[in-house]
Design goal:
heterodimer, A: 441 residues, B: mainly alpha, 4 helices
Chain lengths: 441, 109
């Protein structure tokens, strides 16, 4: 069972999971003022593992090994800090003892306090007094166990910026003496919305595929981003497993996550290029995720509140069960977007609604719907607006208009993979070998 | 309902739903949706107190929408790089109808 040829990839996930659980429990025991200390001792255990495991092999129970090392480091720190001396007993009680035969063979992962500690940590990270822009990063770091480097890679941000956000958040926790604990009653429902919002944003960050796709480490960012999506999913499942947060809108959010993540394998080609929905090999869609999505969608269809997450999940479900673009229930999708637009009238929702209209009622209707929103400043440089218009023009065989619009899209900012997709589309309507002169924009 | 709490890994062992099963689940959702009036959010509760909507706290500028992102072909947050930028964009267009809701949300936070 042990290997010595180096630390394999699954270790990353193990580290993350263990780190997240440990930091949550240690923070409960030591207090939120000592979040840094909790992270430090866990980090030290991971470093020690990376130093030793390649040579000695991975232990029989790697999790127990990590926990034991982190616990001992924590005890060391407690000895040196008089103010923490009283925590020693709690610390020892929280973690399993090492038996005479070595490490305990099975570490109880699913015990309630492990889950509850992580839930409490989630609520802490999404506390209203934590700066909004820090919440996703803080959650990924402390509950998710992601490193700053991994978070920066997932967000295509730089490490210093991510580190800064986390530092700022922790400062707030200390200065405002924010406590750890899952809220109850009305406060819980109130705070839950913030948590769900953070999970939604987290998933959305992971869902992005801004890979360069030109050999520049294009797959590594993709994998990290899938991990971030899966973390949002995992945390959502934690919420659903806890009585007070086992609520319809939590299931709606989970359904949404499952449906979208079911397409991971088909969204990006081997070359790192983006694959449009119409061209995706639906046989590669993860059936078990789609099924889980449908189960959660069903669980969400309770009570009398259809939240934004419900609507988005329902939209996603229509795609998930369709055999292809043509047989997708675009009429249903359009009505869902109408409802969503009434609640959340953002340009992006409007854009997606217009596209659904185009597919449901025909390209001309789509163009008309797009015309209604094209003047909104936040869409002025949104290449997807031009690309959508170009697409419908193309469907109507308005080739020169389509070409002009694809060029306008290319003039906007977009990632290399997106650029290549647009260029391929442009070439389709306006092969570069053609003798037709370019129109002035 | 126990199955819902299983991890994503456990889902792999789940039995396959037939296309009919899947359509039935979609239909069930549609029925429920119609039942709650299709417009969603109950704004006033039983005592006449106005309830906050689910999106009143976190301003979301973008989302994993398949239509624009996968139908047309692209996955990119362009609209706002971060919260500050998002606020800036909204402040530039107070006269446009769908700018206002976002501004109200930002103010609430």
């Amino acid at each position: 069972m042990t290997r010595s040829e180096g630390v394999p990839a699954f270790v990353d996930h193990l580290f993350r999971r263990t780190a997240g659980q440990m930091v949550s429990t240690l923070t409960r025991i030591l207090g939120t003022r000592h979040l840094d200390l909790a992270e430090d001792v866990v980090q030290e255990a991971l470093i020690r593992a990376l130093e030793q495991w390649p040579f000695r092999g991975i232990p029989e129970n790697p999790t127990a090994w990590l926990i034991e090392v982190a616990k001992n480091r924590a005890l060391d720190r407690l000895r040196r800090d008089a103010s923490l001396a009283s925590k020693r007993d709690d610390l020892l009680a929280a973690f399993p003892a090492v038996t005479a035969a070595g490490f305990e063979p099975a570490y109880p992962f699913q015990t309630h306090w492990l889950r509850d500690d992580q839930l409490a940590m989630m609520f802490l990270c999404c506390h209203p007094e934590i700066p909004e822009e820090s919440r996703v990063a803080l959650t990924l770091k402390t509950v998710g166990g992601f490193s700053v480097k991994e978070i920066a890679r997932a967000f295509l941000s730089d490490e210093a910026a991510v580190a800064q956000r986390i530092v700022r958040a922790k400062r707030q926790i200390r200065e405002r003496a924010i406590d750890l604990g899952v809220p109850v009653g009305a406060a819980l429902l109130d705070r839950l919305d913030s948590v769900l919002g953070v999970l939604y944003l987290m998933f959305n960050e992971g869902y992005l595929s801004r890979g360069s796709g030109s050999g520049e480490d294009s797959h590594a960012p993709g994998l990290i981003r899938e991990d971030v999506c899966n973390e949002a999913l995992r945390l959502g499942l934690l919420l659903a497993s806890y009585g007070a947060t086992d609520l319809p809108k939590v299931h709606a959010l989970l359904a949404l996550f499952y449906f979208h993540s079911s397409r991971f394998a088909s969204r990006v080609s081997a070359e790192g290029d983006l694959v449009a929905l119409a061209d995706q090999d639906r046989a590669k869609w993860d059936r078990s995720r789609i099924e889980q999505g449908l189960l959660h969608l069903t669980a969400s269809a309770e009570g009398d509140e259809e939240s934004d997450y419900h609507l988005e999940a329902a939209i996603a479900s229509a795609h998930a069960v369709a055999a292809d673009v043509a047989s997708t229930d675009w009429g249903y999708i359009t009505t869902l977007y109408e409802s969503l637009f009434q609640r959340k009238a953002t340009p992006v929702v409007a854009l997606n609604r217009a596209i659904a209209i185009g597919y449901g009622r025909g390209p001309e209707a789509g163009l008309a719907a797009l015309r209604e929103i094209e003047l909104h400043p936040s869409l002025a440089n949104y290449y997807l607006l031009f690309a959508s218009q170009a697409h419908f023009c193309e469907l109507l065989s308005f080739r020169s208009e389509a070409a002009e619009l694809y060029r306008a899209a290319l003039a906007c900012e977009c990632a290399p993979a997106e650029r290549r997709l647009l260029e391929r589309r442009l070439d389709r309507v306006y092969p570069s070998s053609s003798a037709i002169p370019e129109k002035n924009l | 309902m126990l199955l819902l709490h299983e991890s994503a890994d456990a889902a792999k062992h789940f039995g396959s739903l037939s296309p009919e099963d899947m359509q039935a689940m979609i239909a069930r959702y549609k029925d429920w949706r119609t039942g709650v009036g299709g417009t969603g959010e109950k704004l006033i509760d039983g005592t006449g107190r106005v309830m906050k909507g689910p999106s009143s706290k976190v301003v979301v500028k973008d989302g994993p929408y398949a239509e624009s992102k996968e139908v047309i072909g692209g996955f990119f947050i362009v609209e706002a790089r971060d919260y500050d930028h998002a606020v800036e964009l909204c402040r530039d267009c107070p006269h446009l109808e769908f700018g206002t809701i976002e501004i109200r949300q930002v103010d609430k936070v």
